[in-house]
Automatic annotation (TrEMBL):
Pfam families: Big_10, YkuD. InterPro entries: Big_10, LD-transpeptidase, LD_TPept_cat_dom, Transpep_catalytic_dom. Residues 227-353 form the L,D-TPase catalytic domain. Residues 383-412 are annotated as: Disordered. Keywords: Acyltransferase, Cell shape, Cell wall biogenesis/degradation, Peptidoglycan synthesis, Transferase. The keyword Acyltransferase applies. The active site is at 311 (proton donor/acceptor), 329 (nucleophile). Residues 394-412 have a biased composition (Low complexity). It comes from Actinocorallia aurantiaca. The keyword Acetylation does not apply. This is Ig-like domain-containing protein. Pathway: Cell wall biogenesis; peptidoglycan biosynthesis.
Amino acid sequence: MRLIGLVSVGALVAACSGGGGNGTGPGEEKAQPPVVAITPADGTGKAKPEQGVTVQATLGELTGVKVQLKGKEVPGALSSDKKVWKSAGNLQPDAAYTVEAVAQNEGQTATTTSSFKTLKPSSTFGLEYNIPWSGQTVGVGMPIVLNFTQPVKDKKAVESALTVESEKPNEGAWYWYTDEQVIFRTKDYWDAYQDIKVSGRFTGVKAAKGVYGMKDFNLKFKVGSSNISTINTRTHRMVVKIDGKKKQDVGISAGKATERKYTTTSGIHVTMEKKNPETMISPGIKEGEPGYYKEIVPYAVRISYSGEYVHSAPWSVGSQGRANVSHGCVNAPPAFAQWYYNQSKWGDIVDVTGTDRELEFDNGYGYWQKPWKDWVTGSAFDKSVSTAPGQENAPAAPDTATTTTPAESPTT
């Protein structure tokens, strides 16, 4: 029995010993190669542009990621722990991408590759027109108006793609007037003499179901001198200040106010266009009917959609500075009107007081009429943004072609 017991113990010891010296030794494990996951997955044919590219090292860490579109690298960022790389911004719709990721783990290196395609949108969106146009010099009250080719349902996605930068920082907010139009207004007037840049990173942005942006845009314009005019319809005076200095103080004649349509609107107007001469026809009155007129008016500067202008009126010189006799326009002395016309530009301020007809905020560029707190609620995010330089901008793109918005018939 003893002999049997000794043999049994010896056999057990032999069975537990390593054989031939070919193992990893007690407590040792073979190093694992890195493991990398790429999203969208290899072979995907309808990747969503708004989801971008994510490369994740589930074992080990990333040492290099290259995502390419037509031979050009797609920008992205690596997390501080080197575990995750994400592309910056959205992807181009209807495009083919390649991904190459290099990772390391415990001295072992592995390369993972992938290729995929983004979906083809059922429809695309972009800018139909923008105000102001690129390269213009405008006044301190100038808004930024963007009109889209398609209704925007995901306003947060589109607004997130927009940035406004000014050399002299201001506070501003986007206001969605309709699904097709968004307007940017600053809290205070622009500071004079500076460059403004508007960028839209619309590529790959989903504006509505099946509707994506296909290209970015950049708009650059300048703010010139600060031209601010104040008109008091009760004292019949118009004062023009340029860069804070009074340049003109003249008598004028405003709307006679016998009817609402003949009443000059009170409020902060913004100059919209100018024409010399302008043909002014009585709105809503046909030729031969009482009150009909058709006048050829020189040096006309428009300040509202409802037909109000500051213009030369040699026929009412006797009333200027004394009485309001116009059909709603601001009638001015010929010499002053010519001077005012020559120095005015798109976006100058004309602040009118003294009447009981308030300028509607959407009558021309009367956006300053809406209180700031109410303007901000028109943002998809219900908040304002800074125009301070240094924000991330879209890649350079051709400036967008523009048109103007049709206006109503002018008055005199």
